[in-house]
Amino acid sequence: MGFLIHTLVTAFAFWCTTQLISGISFSGPLNMIIAAVVFGIVNALIRPIALVLSLPLTILTLGLFILVVNAAMLWLTAKLMPGMQIASFGAAFLGAIIIAIVSWIVGRLVAGQQLA
């Protein structure tokens, strides 16, 4: 059940991102859900390796380089998904920030409702 909720929250964050950033688009709602699954897999398998490899830069920038890693994971997801388009790395960077914020907010709301 948690996987389904997390996937739907990520898909909703993708939708919010497409509404705010013109450089990110999806071919349809089903593609958005599939992209959320692929994004979860990319974050589970590749992101930890990228974080370890970029640890010196992350320390040097006091953690801000993690934003670049998050944008790279979003960019990679777009490369793996035929119906997902990202116009530039800048759009991926802003999109990664919006996805993180929306996912965090909705995740907190969903977690708060489950406890009540």
Automatic annotation (TrEMBL):
InterPro entries: Phage_holin_4_2. Signal peptide: none annotated. Pfam families: Phage_holin_4_2 (PF04020). This is Phage holin family protein. The chain crosses the membrane at residues 30-50, 57-78, 84-106. The keyword Transmembrane helix applies. PANTHER family: SLR0284 PROTEIN. It comes from Plastoroseomonas hellenica. Keywords: Membrane, Transmembrane, Transmembrane helix.
